[in-house]
Amino acid sequence: MQNSLRTRVIAALVTSAAIGSALSPAASAVAAPVSAKPAVAVASDQVGVQNISIDVFTKVVDVTGRLYDIINSAVQSHQNRGGYVKSLMEGAFYDARQRYNVVVIKAQHPYTANVNGVVYDAVAHGDGYPAFRVIVFESGTVVNRGDGSWINWAVQGWFNRHGNTIDFHRP
User: Fold this and answer.
1) Binning pLDDT at 50, 70 and 90, where does residue 25 land?
2) Contact 114, 35 (CB under 8 A)
């Protein structure tokens, strides 16, 4: 079943790129909260299997298959939420070849993300878990205005942290 999902994701990516490489209205809705100037998008799609879905906006990096595997594994093993959030963060960071900063934050959490060079932006919905936004980007500032525990957010990359404000820079 996972191979079938990956095949559909790859087909969606190729189709979206072939159709004109333009940002669709659905992708704009997903990408709107990020304060980055969008360039040409490679793909935008929503994929879902069972009770898992990932709303995707990507330019360069695609970690959708990895996120699906993490969510599916967490749901099946009833993994704790903090471990789930860390897994999403690490999966995105390593699938982006450790070249970009990563923020994973509860989608309904009060936060602001003023980031540049967004290469991947997804909202992951796992059965039994709240929706989490996964952003892979070059630089910028993220301010978490809510609880800063592992169950609500995780970051990885190159940054300076001042409380719940994180300034990210290029490696």
Assistant:
1) very low
2) yes
Q: Residue 95 has what DSSP assignment?
A: H
Burial class of 98 by CB neighbour count within 10 A (0 to 12, 13 to 18, 19+): exposed
Contact 2, 72 (CB under 8 A): yes
Residues 6+ apart with CB under 8 A from 23: 31, 38, 40, 41, 44
pLDDT in tens, 98-119: 999 999 999 999 999 999 999 9
pLDDT at 127: 76
Asked whether 41 and 23 are in contact (CB, 8 A), the reply is yes
pLDDT of residue 30: 34
Closest by CA to 112, choosing from 152, 165, 168, 169, is 165
Could you give phi then psi for residue 112, rounded to 5 degrees?
-130, 140
Q: CB burial class (10 A; 0-12, 13-18, 19+) of residue 6? A: middle
Return the half-sphere exposure (C-beta side, CA atoms, 13 A cut-off) of residue 52: 18
What pLDDT does 56 receive? 63
**Is the pLDDT assigned to residue 21 strictly greater than 60?**
no
Compute φ and ψ for 121, nearest 5 degrees. Answer: -145, 115
